[in-house]
Amino acid sequence: MSEPLRVAVLVSGRGSNLAAILEATRRPDFPARVVLVVSDRERAPALERATAHGVPTVFLNPKDFGEREAYDAALSRMLADYQVGLVCLAGFMRILGRAFVLAWPGRIMNVHPSLLPAFPGLRPQRQALDNGVKIAGATVHFVDEGVDTGPIILQSSVPVEPDDTEETLAARILAEEHRLYPEAVRLFAEGRLRIVGCRVVVER
Ligand code: GRF
Question: The domain containing residue 159 runs over which residues?
Answer without folding.
Answer: 112-141+155-204
